Amino acid sequence: MSRRTAPPAIRVRRPREIRDRRRSRAHSCWDHLVAAPLWPLHGANLGTLLRTCDAVGACLAVPRFPWVPEALDRGNTLRRPACVHWVNDPLAWLEAQRNAGSRVVGVELADEAVRLADLPAARVRTVAVLGHEQHGIPAEALDLLDGAVEIPMVGHGSSLNVAVAGSLVLYRLAGLL
């Protein structure tokens, strides 16, 4: 008769302990990871991505649509200033990022896409481009990508929403998954 041992006790960290283990300073706009949902449809996705950006130490690049500031304010549950880059012309901005040496990776279903599990952590400044919730990344922007990443799915849907897909990719690029 074997004797069962008790599972190890799980110790939950207190909020202060969690805060003390995090970076002591806010990240700057020169960090190496940028989430770029440049063709958003739903404001709720932007708020979720803003929270993920804070979690992984990334910046968020968003278009100057009239409704975007309110969506970001509503989604910023941390109530602290966030690193947000305002983009007037998404295509010109992406081209400028590439010309400045950033790696531009699109989250898109493409023949050449790398599976999420095989995506290496970002070693250079990387922009993760997220497309429109219904139409994906516009065709004219695909030529500005250095690569694509695909999130495999076994269910009936063809894709995840932008906030979930972006969060998964950001955690992977940040080296936290």
UniProtKB/TrEMBL annotation:
Pfam families: SpoU_methylase. Residues 44-171 form the tRNA/rRNA methyltransferase SpoU type domain. It comes from the Bacteria. InterPro entries: Alpha/beta_knot_MTases (IPR029028), rRNA_Methyltransferase (IPR051259), SpoU_MeTrfase (IPR001537), tRNA_m1G_MTases_N (IPR029026). GO terms for molecular function: methyltransferase activity. GO terms for biological process: methylation. Keywords: Methyltransferase, Transferase. Signal peptide: none annotated. PANTHER family: RRNA METHYLTRANSFERASE 3, RRNA METHYLTRANSFERASE 3, MITOCHONDRIAL. This is TrmH family RNA methyltransferase.
